[in-house]
Specification:
With about 150 residues, the chain is an alpha+beta fold. About 20% of the residues lie in helices and about 40% in strands. Strands 1, 2, 3, 4, 5, 6, 7, 8 and 9 form a 9-stranded antiparallel sheet that branches.
Length: about 150
């Protein structure tokens, strides 16, 4: 088992992972009735926000519009970053050139020409990161939207 990383190293590793080109994120939402929904999507990390692109008609977009919160997972089981996030804004993919360029620059595709697609900008409120069981203590890096390191 690898030695435990300190929080500063974990934060740096987390930010590096979130900024990785063509990285995917598992997005978990729930309907108003509590029915869970989980989907993998491309992620862009823009100005300390998670940006995802999807059709407005998708269950994920509908669930986020209603509940305004999601749980996100990035990375493999033994190097995971868990993010609880709230929906900050929804932007038509053609409406914000800077956001579109940032998304396309990191994600592995360009949704800007796809009809009915939006960018959902999610603000992290709680972030945890760990690799092995020895890193479970101290795994919380952000609480209530504030970095702890």
């Amino acid at each position: 088992m690898a030695p435990v990383r300190d929080r500063e190293t974990r934060k740096a590793d987390t930010l590096n992972m979130l900024g990785t080109p063509a990285i995917d994120v598992w997005v978990a939402t729930a309907s108003a009735g509590g029915v869970p929904y989980l989907v993998p999507l491309s992620l862009a990390w823009v100005d300390e926000r998670v940006v995802i692109a999807l059709e407005t008609s998708s269950l994920t977009a509908q669930n986020l519009a209603a509940a305004r919160q999601a749980r996100l997972a990035v990375g493999p089981t033994r190097d995971v970053v868990m993010i609880d996030a709230v929906l900050e804004k929804t932007v038509d993919v053609a409406a914000d050139a800077a956001l579109g360029a940032a998304y396309v620059g990191q994600a592995d595709w360009d949704p800007r020409g796809a009809p009915g697609y939006v960018f959902l900008v999610l603000r992290p409120v709680h972030i945890q990161a760990w690799r092995e069981s020895n890193e479970i203590p101290g795994r919380t890096l952000m609480r209530d939207g504030d970095w702890l390191v």
